[in-house]
């Protein structure tokens, strides 16, 4: 089985392998009339782009997106979405010629190599093929389109923890996020992380990270009981990102340690609320109750494991030979890698948040508009 | 929008409100020929049933399931699934007549009351209506059918933490799980939890919990890149359970604090493995890589918030009057409630694990069988 | 595989066998706030109900529908849809005890008996089980809910041809449809059909029919390129009705014999059109172009084969014995049957039209509202 | 709404406009291990290609397909599908620069111009944009992949009627289909059609056609009750092709004129049948009963309307001006057009048959394998 489409009304389908000629996404279900051209999408790809500093992989990819369909000059002279599928393509440029015989022959521990072989019988082993984090560029491109659908929403993601070192909430400054290579909202933490990530890089090792994301402006009512819950869709969206192993909404696992009184999100009337909406005096729930948005900020936390590609050789096994026998061997990742894959996960988490919210906006409009 | 169906090939659709005449599920896509009658499903409902001890809600529901379709006596004289939809119905019996005027008038904080009103304009307020945890009985019934599809898999769930008090892994005894009212595999912890939960109950308060679940026997290859990942589907399934706020696969957030070396899951040849499958010497990944099962136990952790229904009055607001104005008020939950909703979440977590795995078994067979 | 759900946003799932305890449908995705109770649904079931005259099967089924969920008294005191799944149940009453040993042992030609056995290995043979036209009662019930979603649309279906004898368009009178047991808009034809159908009934034979359906009030814009076309969805909906073998939109096969000039649907400005919509001076297209409604009446024609249950014995084969061998035998249908199944197809065709249009209204609102 | 994906397990998503840079399809869910390269797909595109003789449009498109993902050299040295999405791209080459101001300003009668405008507010008017039959090239490419999934099935389509002139079944010769520009199995009819089509072409007019298609080798059991019926899926697939207005399975509308005895498909034991399958002595049902294949040839007939693009001016209206007013005008199609669009529909009908059958093979394997 292969399921490369996400979403219900606002859907995207991605395709492409790390070392094939190109990767891409087809965005279907986008409403018509939204002003769009490549320049609307490119900045988000640039934020995710590798090779921008020593803290990320040195693979150099321009990641130039092309829009191949679904847009046209509207009567007002502006290029807009037409309501038909938007085909986005990003050519793979830096496919460094390389000897792949070792990864062809054995499985990289911590990677999907063995699982793909077990499922499909063989795999495109070059750079991880379809399981490469390179695929997330397609998500970021699709997410940029999704943002056009939800202009009322502001999405912010950042790294809150690297290698176990957390930001200090007291230092949180949203403007700081773009000022350092870690998408870190705490300047002091960013300073510390330089050391942590550089140490990992020099040691050929890697570190994990936690990415946090919030969306403001989500109206109460988006979401859907019971198997289209906004939080369940977010959990699916985030857990599906490469290297993610945990997702929390609101207080997450912390809520399991609170009492009912501590965890309550009391309400009070609000003179200035939109349409007479009440005001909440706490947001343990992360802006979602019963799978439906409450009008508070939607918040989630996402755990990224350390990059599996490391320079230390790991015990592993070979593909079976003709007799079905495997041999013990060792493998390590040569060449370019990300010492902390969670960092470049920030634009991806934002994209997935946008994609889920755009879909739920349309779903809500469809049935309760 | 309303999405009450889960799954791709093995699908179930649930219906029903807490205080309506009945609740139920329609299971579609179940393969034919599986031996089934009510006695196969009932034990799982009994395990979830309320009112069995003082640690859960005193609502008394027999939760007797009826199979209304999709089964027939096979040529071998055994009643079996026919491959057509299996309609399961559970009548609501203990709909104690009660005064609902306060919850009709105002929103219970921490509940979905306000969100439903914001979405749909009004709601069935009796006992939470559709957002009641009562709906999980339908999932448990559907999950019992799913188990028939995956006889090769063993699923075990248990509570690992209540009110912040964790089990000691050294005390883990799978046989202990059924010996106490907490589904606790650590006898000593179960003893301590009696006090914790009883204290909460007496105080009209509530506590959160963490449920862990593992599935053994899942063959390498089940799962699907990239938007039908086994871990993403599990995250969606678990996050969609009432009161759940966090989901981890394998080491989850803990993985974010490991180095690449610590987090590696090395492999070695295994003489006795099925079909020459290799052996892993660690399972940080929780049995899933690239969204595909590796053949190791599939593991997840699920965080349940404390029950929102507590006796302490909470500030809240009324529904808008004719002029659209809301008033400040206070609300508390009268009557029967669960001091720790996570406990009764254990059979639900098991059911969702079974439902996801049954679906992925069929998907895998469909395309890679 | 078993796919018992239809629709994208407005979805229904049916369950139940001809001779099981009940049949039913779960309608999901219905917008909230629509006034509903059983009396809204029952008249449509009554129109489809068997045993009302000698021209249909003598099975007596009261076909009383019960609403088990998804409705609640709204603040205005009216029972309304809540936006949650609406569970509809119809108990099977007239399950006459009967000897089924012959249909258990061999396949009725023209029925789905052999196909079900080939697919599932065995089948509920009583009255056709799941493949019985009895299932269409669930569709009619669901269709009655769908009608609430599209009050702007008027749907009319009627029989235009029985046993090759056609109505005269010049005699078409919409008020006549309810005046005869054939849903025939031509009183003279209805008179002739009495003889045709009665002859078939007495001879233990059966005749085919053509049902025509049109929907007025469908706004231009409903529908969706390219694999959610309104005409493709109608074709699927109609072809999926028991005994249907052909579907036409607009001029259908007749269009294949026209020239481009003859088949054109010219337009002209219309002073009174809604929102300045133009007026068409022909409707060969049946109200759909490029899969999207044009604002003209949506028209289709549906061919029903003659009932396969006839009294004349037909050559057939037995189920394989233990050695896998089949024997030649003959089978005929004892007891009650419909001499012209197309007649009772009229309410079903209307229901499917309503279900498709309700879905497309919500889809359109979701993405182009 | 926009739905550009077809299928359940074997799915394809198409994108692209007639005069954009390219069109394409993403095929998802294709099983791994199938030998594939461009040369496997190209012949089917060549059969559909325009500009090959005077009986089709003179637009010259090389229609060269490129495979951008989802394939890799397997261990046996052969390029094979990997189980990941297969991205197929066809560049648009012959986008003759042309004055589109008239179609930008008014609607071509019989085309989707007005419907698209009504739905989306504006449209890519160049050559019909997304509604152009050019999109069917993507279907043909995807269909070529689908054929690899069902090597046991042979699919044959042909034109059986043009402008009301039918083939003589007595002259049917399958080898003749490739010998004339009409995919006509009757040499004498092909001769006659030269005149009919050429007359239409010279007159700037157009004629309709009927395409018939059969698939042999479809095993009994493929298909699915009740809303995934094989015949309903075929009806949807065929009705969704540009210009199609009618679909029949088996005897279709003809069955409505038969008696139950005439329409019966009797069975008898068959010594040489696969797995002891019985033999049918008639096939009025077109190989499908209850939505499930019976093992007989699956047959369908598809009605194509005459090409809407004709040289005779047709009354129509303009897009509304700033005041929302429309003007009466006339429009005719300048330049290249197909005098009989049904001819080039043959490879498309075959492709859709293959796509539906591939999907149902995987569905069947998934749940009843």
Automatic annotation (TrEMBL), chains A, B, C, D:
Pathway: Metabolic intermediate biosynthesis; chorismate biosynthesis; chorismate from D-erythrose 4-phosphate and phosphoenolpyruvate: step 7/7. FMN binds at residues 130-132, 242-243, 290, 305-309, 336. NADP(+) binds at residues 48, 54. Reduced FMN (FMNH(2)). Transmembrane segments: none annotated. It is an enzyme of class 4 (lyase). This is Chorismate synthase. The lineage of its organism: Bacteria, Pseudomonadati, Pseudomonadota, Alphaproteobacteria, Sphingomonadales. Belongs to the chorismate synthase family. It comes from the Bacteria. The keyword NADP applies. Pfam families: Chorismate_synt. Its cofactor is FMNH2. InterPro entries: Chorismate_synth, Chorismate_synth_AroC_sf, Chorismate_synthase_CS. HAMAP family: Chorismate_synth (MF_00300). Homotetramer.
């Amino acid at each position: 089985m292969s399921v490369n489409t996400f979403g219900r009304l606002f859907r995207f389908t991605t395709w492409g392998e790390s070392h094939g000629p190109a990767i891409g996404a087809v965005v279907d279900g986008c409403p018509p009339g939204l002003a769009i051209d490549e320049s609307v999408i490119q900045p988000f790809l640039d934020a995710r782009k590798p090779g921008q500093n020593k803290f990320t992989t040195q693979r150099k990819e321009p990641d130039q997106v092309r829009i191949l369909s679904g847009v046209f000059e509207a009567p007002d002279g502006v290029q807009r979405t037409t309501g038909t599928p938007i085909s986005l393509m990003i050519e793979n440029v830096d496919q460094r010629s390389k000897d792949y015989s070792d990864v062809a022959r054995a499985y990289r521990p911590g990677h999907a190599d063995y699982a793909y072989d077990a499922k499909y019988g063989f795999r495109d082993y070059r750079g991880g093929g379809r399981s490469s984090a390179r695929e997330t560029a397609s998500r970021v491109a699709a997410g940029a389109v999704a943002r056009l659908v939800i202009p009322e929403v502001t999405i912010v993601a950042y790294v809150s923890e690297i290698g176990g070192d957390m930001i200090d909430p007291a230092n949180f400054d949203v403007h700081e996020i773009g000022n350092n290579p870690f998408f870190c909202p705490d300047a002091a933490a960013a300073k510390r992380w330089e050391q942590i990530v550089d140490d990992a890089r020099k040691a050929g090792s890697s570190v994990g990270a936690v990415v946090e994301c919030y969306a403001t402006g989500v109206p109460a009512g988006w979401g859907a009981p019971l198997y289209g819950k906004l939080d369940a869709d977010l959990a699916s969206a985030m857990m599906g990102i490469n290297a993610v192993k945990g997702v929390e909404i609101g207080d997450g696992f912390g809520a399991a340690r609170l009492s009912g009184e501590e965890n309550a999100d009391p309400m009070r009337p609000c003179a200035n609320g939109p349409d007479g909406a009440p005001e909440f005096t706490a947001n343990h729930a992360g802006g979602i109750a019963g799978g439906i948005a409450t009008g508070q900020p939607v918040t989630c936390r996402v755990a990224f494991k350390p990059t599996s590609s490391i320079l230390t050789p790991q015990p592993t096994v070979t593909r079976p030979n003709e007799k079905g026998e495997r041999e013990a061997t060792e493998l390590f990742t040569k060449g370019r890698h990300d010492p902390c894959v969670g960092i470049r996960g920030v634009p991806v988490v934002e994209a997935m948040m946008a994609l889920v919210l755009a879909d739920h906006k349309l779903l809500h409009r469809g049935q309760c508009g």
